[in-house]
Amino acid sequence: MSSKHLSTRHGDFEIRPYRPGDEVQITVGFNRVFGRTRGIAEWRAKFGNVGLERRIMVAVDRDAKIVAHYAATDATLEIEGTRFLAGQPVDVYSIRRPDVVMSGLFAKTTDFFFEAFCGAGKIALLYGFPGDRALRFGQLRNRYKHFKPVTVWTRPAAPAPPVRRLFGNRRELGQIDMFWKRTAHLSPAANRRDHLRLQRRYFGDRSQPYKFVTHARGGLLQAWAIFRVKGDTAYIAELMWDGEDLRSLEAVTGRIQLEAALANAAGLELWSPPGTYLAAGLSSLGWKSDRHPGGASLALMGFDPAIDEAWLLDNLFYSMGDSDLV
Question: What is the CATH number of domain 3-149?
Answer without folding.
Answer: 3.40.630.30
